[in-house]
Amino acid sequence: MEFEFFIGIDVSKNELDFSVQQGKHFLFHKEIVNEPEAINTLLKELGKLKGFSLGKAIFCMEHTGIYSNHLLSCLYQKKANICLESASQIKKSLGSLRGKNDKVDSMRIASYAYKNRDELRLWAPRREEVQQLAHLSSTRSRLIKAKKMLKTPLKEYGSFVKKKAVKQNTDVCNKALNGIEASLEHVEKSIMDIINADPELKRLFTLVTSVVGIGKVTAVQLIVTTNEFKDINNAKAYACYAGLVPYLEESGVFKGKGRISHMANKKVKTLLHMAALVAIQYNDELRLYYERKVNVEKKNKMSVINAVRNKLVQRIFSCVNQNRKYEKNYLKLVA
After folding, report:
1. How far is CA 58 from CA 2, 16, 66, 158, 295, in A?
2. What is the reported pLDDT for 19?
3. 30 bridge partner residues
4. Which among 62, 67, 66 is positioned nearest to 93, based on CA atoms?
5. Inter-helix orientation angle 36-46/69-77, to 10°
6. CB neighbours (10 Å) of residue 148?
7. Are 264 and 242 spatial neighbours (Cβ–Cβ below 8 Å)?
8. Which DSSP string corresponds to 222-262?
């Protein structure tokens, strides 16, 4: 699809900054409040531009979580073309630029949309069930963080504070901790209820968790971040998304070592790290692979663990794309 109008939008909690380009030519910038009525009013104004139609325009913005909800809802109802990109992808594409404010950011997003017009991938909303999983997963993370914030000081008090004060603090915190624990149980039950009630989610969850090392939390994150393996459907792309693929720094005769990009989903990366440690412990093939690389070939432990993470991602996507559970001796069975 060929686009004529490129609208870059910088999203914040209270305001939206729109920068409009026709081809590579900048037309205007406008700031509005982040409310449905203001968004619909602006869309009517855009409709008055000479030659403008929603079919010829694409609206591009960065991922900003819930702050984008009003905008996405209004645009989707109008059947507009929407592109949702990561901030790191836009920054990487445009290179080093000076100056930063909401207007400038929206102009850069519009420029990004024009520059990459042939490669832009249109956004489609996640199903309501997947959206619920995403919200519950975020709530679970916040509860675990709150639990850790309360428990850690209690362990440290024992060595430096009088017993009476320790008991007093412990009694107060235990009530909160019990409440958090109850909330965690409720959240985890709600997550599993959603999965078990939806045939497609249940199928994906079963396939992903069949891979040794992949638990419930990691499986849910994989389903949510790939949008049921629709937005990202191959292992290599997901490995890049999770920051598992080393990139090379080369210039002329200089060749640097491969490094892992920091522009990644660090939550997923951490979960896959924990999954790799479990897999090394309980999967004979990966345990022997790890021991050979570390003990015999003297490879760096973290680089070997990263290789295991990549292997897990490859196994997960193979299972999903082939619609089968992971089988240890699958190649032998089909040979």
Report:
1. 10, 16, 21, 59, 54
2. 97
3. 18
4. 62
5. 50
6. 10
7. yes
8. HHHHTTTTTS--SHHHHHHHTT-SEE--EETTEEPPPEE-S
Residues 106 and 17 sit within 8 Å (Cβ to Cβ): yes
Q: Which residue from 276, 210, 200 is spatially nearest to 239, judged by alpha carbons?
A: 276
Give the tens place of pLDDT for each residue, 246-272: 765 544 444 555 566 666 789 999 999
**What single-letter amino acid sits at 30?**
K
Do 196 and 189 meet the contact criterion of CB atoms below 8 Å apart?
no
Q: How many residues are listed for the chain in this entry?
A: 335
Query: Whole-angstrom Cα distance, residue 128 to residue 134?
Result: 10
What's the pTM?
0.79
Alpha helices in the chain (DSSP H): 36-46, 69-77, 87-94, 102-115, 128-160, 163-197, 199-209, 216-225, 235-241, 266-282, 284-291, 301-322, 330-334
The distance of Cα 302 from the centroid of its chain, to the nearest Å, equals 23
Sequence letter at residue 8: G
Asked if residues 7 and 60 have their Cβ atoms less than 8 Å apart, the reply is: yes
- Tell me how far apart the alpha carbons of residues 307 and 318 are, in angstroms, rounded to a whole number: 16
CA 326 to chain centre: 24
> Nearest Cα to 305, choosing from 250, 263, 244, 255?
244
